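Worked example 2:
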Amino acid sequence: MANVRTAAYPPRYSRAARILHWLTVVLVLTTIPAGLIMVEEGLSRPVQDTLYLYHKNIGPVILLLVVLRLVVRVVSPPPPHPESLPRVQALVASVVHWLLYATLVALVVSGMVRVQAGGFPMEIWDPLIGGLLDRDKDLAEAASEFHEIAKSVLIVLILMHAGAAAMHGLVKRDGIFSRMWPPV
């Protein structure tokens, strides 16, 4: 009986999509505060170094997860929105999802450009992608500025996405949240 789906149980995202989604959530929600804290004045050098190492080396992992999520999305398309969801909300949900993907890619790429053009190592990733860019102060600065803007965009998109999820899961209880929950 547990596998029977009725109108009360809308179709769900695939297990792979759910696992990748929640893994991305955990990494992004730990990377954002690490990035915000690591640049604070007065932080001890060991703490700052640890946060920098985490932040810049988890970025490519997030990029790989996003690519995997897009592959899974092609192989196993998301379930359709329920007919009860107004078209405007369905459109906004789609736009926010695609903007989240694009912003995550832009953040990781700009961070990697900032690190490499700044002449800094990406310890875990250097054997694979080290030396793709020469040291270039202007490029590093531009990538850093773009990264800052994209970070703010990502935070707004996350708040929109999480707010909508909370509304559907806690207020409306219309089954939309259960399309992605539980993670496995």
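The chain has five helices and no strands. The longest helix spans residues 137-172.
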